[in-house]
Amino acid sequence: MIVAGKWVERDKTIGVYDPQDDSLISTVPAASSEDVHKAIAGGTEGVRIAAQMPTHERMAVLNRAADLIAEREDVFATTIAREGSKTIREALKEVRRSMDTLRISAEEARRLHGETIPFDQKSGSENRLGYYYRFPVGLIAAITPFNDPLNLVAHKVGPAIAAGNAVIVKPSTVTPLSALQLAEVLFEAGLPPKVLSVVTGYGREIGDPLVMHPEVRMISFTGGTSAGEAISRKAGVKKLSMELGSNSPVIVLKDADLNEAVEATVQGAFSAAGQNCIGVQRVYVEDDIYDDFSDRFVKRTKRVRVGDKLSELTDMGPMITEQEAVRVEQWVQEAVDRGANLLTGGERDGAFYLPTVLERVPSHCTLAHEEVFGPVVSLYRVSGLEEAVRAANRVNFGLQAGIFTRDVEKAFVAVRNVEAGGIMVNDSSDYRIDAMPFGGIKGSGLGREGVKYAVEEMTEIKVVCFKFPDRHII
Questions:
Q1: What is the edge-to-edge ordering of all strands in the sheet holding 115-117?
Q2: In angstroms, how far is the first alpha carbon of the chain from the final one?
Q3: Domains delineated in the chain
Q4: Neighbours of 433 (CB within 10 A)
Q5: How confident is the model at residue 474 (pLDDT cuts 50, 70, 90)?
Q6: pTM over 0.85
């Protein structure tokens, strides 16, 4: 791991396993609280170094890092596929997204500016002139999950560097290798060593020292709601950016293009084995087309090819651990026991869980109101848009949603009334570009990611006002 810019080893290690066959890929150090304090001490020096880097140097580092990833995209993709759940095709897409993320970060570095302020708008302030500008927050703790082990790290580190900050990354314990490879190319691209640490270890041992330390001025966290709530209670007075997941709804009205709606929602439900914060979990289908949609959806789901992640022919690999697959299996069984109808799937083999479709899931089931984070989708019959919107808003999440309709007026009704940070019209909830503001409301988190918006959140505003002596105009 990297502590204050230095590669270090430790006697106590954590095994990194391929969830497909439970084979050991590598080991990483199990960091201690002492390691965290060393990273923070180095990071406080890194704060001064990063703040003094001129914009063109920050841009050069980020662009060069993206170029290096492009040269090694097969290596990065294989790492993502082996340590996580993604197929090799999905992993390659993530590698290319990470390049875009870094390049967009470089571009946003040049756009980080303030504005002049007309202080003479107030009577008595005629002899004042001023402006505001943005300056770096300082030391940022970036805590990332397993499901996008490269691009979600890039989404935090890229903007942090663009804004002139130092950053300590705590990657997921099960997928730390991609983060370490990203750090390697950033240093090779010219990033000063103390600007970045990547500390590998268990959250129960290093989480509190990292988030509670007063030198850490911002926490950027992507993960579960309970962990986010715990961090917010412990962090103290500092900036928080949190993406806490969802239970994403999609509405399909009777005038929709059914072929398009089925294809998009199946892809949105089962990509990355459903381990996706904006993955489709609930689909509300207007009554007139429900039977047709359901039939097509199930047939398309059965064509999802589950198997070897490294095969180009595979559509879906295993879940991240067998334990997670067992949890999903239990949630589905609970729903079936309480009256849900299992249309397809519902079978587990180790960490593999087949793409699963249910209908008539009771509202009191865990599946109905929590984030499943697995390859499970529930279909619901609704009378129309109004009922669909009410049902979509029934959970304590609001990250992204989707609606399929040819009626622009109905689309705007959904846009206005669905409680979410984003709504995709004629697309599933699982659509995103890395330049857009991304985040949610209610239990889905605080703040917005997306490079430009993350850069802004990773800065503070300073107001400058000059008072000039009273003089006659010449």
A1: 115-117, 128-136, 459-467
A2: 65
A3: 2-244+444-463 (3.40.605.10), 248-425 (3.40.309.10)
A4: 10
A5: low
A6: yes
